């Protein structure tokens, strides 16, 4: 009996968007209008690339970025939840699928000593160049019309499950925990026995309820959470059964 927990990162594990939080490092903690208005829908990664160039041009160094990123608060109850999962790792495999980047997630998880809770992190690869600029790339290429160009979370989840099956690992239940519009695609891939946990008041919850109203509901069960304690209560019931 093994369960797979799939977490989004921004506004799910942490209570902010890591990509917009980094703007605190910019001069006067804001971006010039031209840069801010240069975002095009579906091309967030390219936009963040330009933000990182701007920060680099203004002399923002890696250690300052790291200091800033590790001050992001975790979502209410999340520290307790991750502690609980860490103590029950034999029952839970745990992955992150996020549109953030490897550098930010690595810094935040390691600073709080939660990196061992997660078996794998799927996110946009990032690194510091020889000149000290942070660079970010697309996670993969895909053909899904519903998702941003750089990341289809359904594709990531499906490929992970296929790889696990090859290794002889299958899951009693998949539990998907997220908040955003780009979490809907993987949620629609979940089966009847699985469970989607959208964060209360966020885009994913709204999109799932819109589907239910248009009589094309998702196959899986849906359990809304506002604090990660809600998620922990569910997991405790699950392992008691």
UniProtKB/TrEMBL annotation:
Active-site residues per Swiss-Prot or TrEMBL entry: 8 (nucleophile), 10 (proton donor)
GO molecular function, one term: metal ion binding
One Pfam family of this chain: Put_Phosphatase
Binding residue positions for Mg(2+): 8, 10, 179
Chain sites annotated for binding substrate: 19, 99
InterPro entries for this protein: HAD-like_sf (IPR036412), HAD_hydro_PyrdxlP_Pase-like (IPR006384), HAD_sf (IPR023214), Pase_PHOSPHO-typ (IPR016965)
Highest taxon, organism lineage: Eukaryota
Keyword presence, Hydrolase: yes
Keyword list, A-Z: Hydrolase, Magnesium, Metal-binding
Cofactor(s) required, per the database record: Mg(2+)
NCBIfam families assigned to the protein according to its UniProt record, in alphabetical order: DKMTPPase-SF, HAD-SF-IB
Sequence similarity: Belongs to the HAD-like hydrolase superfamily. PHOSPHO family.
PANTHER family attached to this UniProt entry: PHOSPHATASE, ORPHAN 1, 2, PYRIDOXAL PHOSPHATE PHOSPHATASE PHOSPHO2
Protein name (database record): PHOP2 phosphatase
